[in-house]
Request: fold
Amino acid sequence: MPKKKTKSESKSKLTGKPRKPEASSLIHLPLGVSHPVDIHVGGRLRARRTLLGLAQEMLADAVDLTFQQIQKYERGANRIGASKLFQFTQILGISVAYFFDDLDGKLGDPAAGYQVGMGYKDNSPPERDEMNRRETLELVRAYYQIKDVEKHKALRMMFESLANASEAK
Reply:
């Protein structure tokens, strides 16, 4: 008895040409590798939590999780489900879209797709965004806690001066 052809091995009824492999065959990552989207969404969660001055424990309590689970979400080690993502938006005062802002730029051309699976090693991972570093987030939070407009202006001028001096070296 002949072996039954899978859908990807069969020919298209319209063109008679072999079918292309289904997209689902391209989305398998090697064991232990987080998907770039999960890493990005976790980074956005961490950025917002840090900007608001919330400890992982406080956020975990608010969504009935352990702080270890929050850590896994923030690293991208665990994927955040839709209902949990929605809970985070309510607690953090943001829209769901916030988690996906700037995603296209980090993963390349969305029309071309981000190649994963067999060709995953050929891709460069998303760059580490300096704006999501803890130090940056804490500086921004501290800056906005200062209410004096003149001090804001003085700090901006000082930072620009220091940055220009660093570039000159």
